[in-house]
Amino acid sequence: MGRSRAENERHEVPLTVSKRLRIRGPFHGFGARGTEMRKIVAGLAAVSLMTFCVPAGAQTSGSYVLNLVVPVDCRLQHLADGAGGMAGPAFTLGQISEYCNDPGGYQVVVNYAPGTLQGTVLAIGEDQVVLNGSGHAIVSSAPGPRARARMLSAIPGQNGFDTDRLDFQIQPV
């Protein structure tokens, strides 16, 4: 769990800035982190507009481009809310909270002890994978930036839960 190895990758992302300072970019719609970023960009845009001051009554037209580099930030968190319950044959293991702003999307992978959990069905929301005992599986993927929370559940295989650890990671694609 935690940050991926690609956290220091950077992508240049075009932003659109209108005269009303309405800012949109890949951080739009990502809660508090998006709000922080919009405030920073609005401040930078305001400072850049100050350099283009024009006397009152003068006619002006034109445009400008503001380019920023937004670092890739992907995080995954396990919340124990509802863990330990059963829904039919599935055991509820809590909730997975995902956040990744990579424009190319991301994958949620699970690592576990090789040779264990054969036949176990692991599900995050509607995404499922049958574990084959290899010790690694891709459980879910997203085609673009996303922030969401989904339920985590598992249906044990023939050997039951024969390991005490599941290590979930989020990886930009």
List the helices and strands and how they pair.
Elements: E1 10-14, E2 16-17, E3 23-24, H1 31-50, E4 67-71, E5 74-79, E6 86-87, E7 90-100, E8 106-111, E9 121-124, E10 127-130, E11 136-142, E12 146-155, E13 167-172
Antiparallel strand pairs: 1-4, 2-3, 5-7, 6-7, 7-12, 8-11, 8-13, 9-10, 9-12
Mean pLDDT over all positions: 79
Number of helices: 1
Level-1 CATH class name of the largest domain: Mainly Beta
Number of structural domains: 2
In a few lines, what is going on in this structure?
The protein has 173 residues and is mainly β. The chain is 12% helix and 40% strand. The chain folds into two domains: 10-71, no CATH class; 74-172, Sandwich (Jelly Rolls), CATH 2.60.120.
How would you explain this protein's 3D organization?
- Helices cover 12% and strands 40% of the residues.
- It has one helix spanning 31-50; strands at 10-14, 16-17, 23-24, 67-71, 74-79, 86-87, 90-100, 106-111, 121-124, 127-130, 136-142, 146-155, 167-172.
- The strands form four sheets. Strands 5, 6, 7, 9, 10 and 12 form a six-stranded antiparallel beta sheet that branches. It has a three-stranded antiparallel beta sheet with strand order 11-8-13, with no helix packed on it.
- Residues 1-30 have low confidence and may be disordered.
- It has 173 residues and is mainly beta.
- It has two domains: 10-71, no CATH class; 74-172, Jelly Rolls (Sandwich).
